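Record filed here:
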Amino acid sequence: RISDLCVGQNPWNLVPLITNIIHSVVFRYHEMAERILEDSPFVETVVIRPGDLVDDERDVNTTSIQVSANGKVPGPSRVGREDVASLAVAAATFVTPNEKTNNNDKHGNNISNNVNNNNEPFHYTFGCRWVG
């Protein structure tokens, strides 16, 4: 799910407050959708909260992408749509801890006690922006 970086901010901050007034509490609905997905025992989720989306291409020589695992990055936060799409593809193809792996060592012995056998779905929230 691609969300908005303002979802992680206090709703009484200036930008979320103005946006919620104009767009009928859109960030509140984003947050509610994220919570429903996180509370689901069946769905593994990766939420991406990009900064302000731009159509510009990133100069790879001077600019890099900052990805925060807590879903928040400091402002100003701009990021290209192409970079967000690349991050979404990388997150979608991420090998999850719950996927079946080969539980045998090089001698064919079962080593499943060293592998995470927890079948609970994982939930990650990333914030991203350009830096540099």
